[in-house]
Amino acid sequence: MKHVLAFGTGGAVTALRYYFSTDHQYACTIISEVPSDEAGRQALINNAQLVISMVDAEQQQWIAQDCIQCGRHLVSPAGINEKIMNLRPQVENSNMLFLYEMGFDPGLDHMSALHCINRLRLQGAHIRSVYSHSGRLVLPEHDNNPWHCKTDNAHQLINTGKAGAVYKERDRVHQLKYEEIFNASRLIEFPATGFLSWYPVADSMGYIPLYGLNDVETFIRTNLQHPDFIYGWKNVIDLKLTSEQSMYETDGMTLADFFRVHFDKHGFSGWLEQKMVERFSQTKQILEKLMQFMEVEQAALEGGHGSPDNILMVDEKGKLENIDLGEVKDKAAAMVAYKMHEANLTLKQLFFLGMDDQQTVINKGKCSAAGVLQFALQQKLSLQPHEHDMALMMHEIEYELQGERSVMQSNLLLRGTDHYLAHEMVTGLTLGIAAKLILEGQLRLKGLHIPVLPEIYEPVLNELRRNGVLFMEEQRRVR
């Protein structure tokens, strides 16, 4: 019997345990608390042939060093940081395989994207653009708040994007600050869910050489959220609610008290007034443009020419453009409705977080604004036991083949269950599959790796498909 040792807690551990329980050739021991003493950890590790680590960064480092010392393979969903990179020579000398980024994202995103990219390259295609989107959202039937968001990890949500983002678009490298990342106008249409907004993850550039795409024009890895969440989170950042600098004495303080004190300190009234003026001003401009089109239409009718379907206009570059009047009206009406929706949404979201909540007492001692926001998110936006999430992934790969430009789109939608979140299920499965491949001798690589090599991702994806993780693909021409 082969013995696997796993450190960690949560739904991914549950999925991992279930995966191994179906194969009696394996014993999987789960340790929820990592021993702080080296001897205790190494005693556990020496009894296993492979270690799976799903713990925080500090404990990840301990376990990695112990696996080197004990000569054991290591698999983890964690991203590779600088400290782990520094262990590379020791990992290679140990003749073991350390396989990182084997979760949902990072992990399945690399494997599924490269599965598509390399198939296209084998056909002779030139890859021009890659958008790799992934997201974790609440199922529509459990979406019951103005944020359209439920979370099991408020701390992670608050810190998302704080490092900024860097990516490549149209042969230009873009570096965004935290305040610039959340923009609800970046939209994609996801099958079965409708329009979602995306924002870039911290570092897309580092993966370009790993994907073998040094000449790609656009490469962006993103996270998906509901457009209303992106709009509201930008407001949260602008209002300094994610700040670690502003400190408050929160014992005996209600959420309403905190919001009042914090907003007085950061000029909320002026900010809100400007926000409303901008929305109404934009609405006024749109309506004025719409009235101009309608006057053109009326003049044509009065001149006996009938209602025009199209008119010629000069665009921003001085070129004549044929404009469909019906389409203009529809878009203008939709834009007016959306701007009014934003004006209403601003306050609805803040009230939902507790701006008028005189009942909920914080009682966290001296605490930053970010700490209070984390508390508020845990109170207001926690995913309840009977509620389920969904994990989404979409790759949009534009390529040129035999003089024609096309886009391959690959989509995944998974639903969570009562036992684990959707992304946790994928993480547990992926870790278990990788562990079996290593112990059965099907994955013979040594050293420190992430799953960007076909010998890693192809067998893992094959086994994931057998376990219901299925991507749907479609292709379309680029006009």
Features:
single chain; 479 residues; alpha/beta; seven-stranded mixed beta sheet; 19 strands; 42% helix
Secondary-structure blueprint of this entry?
Elements (H helix, E strand, L loop, with lengths): L1 E7 L2 H11 L4 E6 L6 H9 L3 E5 L2 H14 L2 E3 L6 H4 L2 H7 L2 E3 L8 H15 L3 E13 L15 H6 L5 E5 L2 E5 L1 H4 L5 E4 L3 E7 L17 E8 L1 H12 L8 E3 L5 H11 L2 H35 L7 E5 L5 E5 H31 L10 E3 H12 L8 E13 L2 E12 L6 H18 L7 E3 L4 H13 L5 E6 L2
Description:
The protein is α/β, with parallel strands linked by helices and 479 residues long. Helix content is 42%, strand content 24%. The protein is built from 15 helices and 19 strands. The chain has helices at residues 11-21, 38-46, 57-70, 82-85, 88-94, 108-122, 154-159, 178-181, 227-238, 255-265, 268-302, 325-355, 369-380, 422-439, 454-466, and strands at 2-8, 26-31, 50-54, 73-75, 97-99, 126-138, 165-169, 172-176, 187-190, 194-200, 218-225, 247-249, 310-314, 320-324, 366-368, 389-401, 404-415, 447-449, 472-477. The chain has a seven-stranded mixed beta sheet. Strands 2-1-3-4-5-18 form a six-stranded parallel beta sheet, with helices on both faces. The radius of gyration is 26 Å and the shape is globular. The model is unreliable at 312-316 (pLDDT under 50).
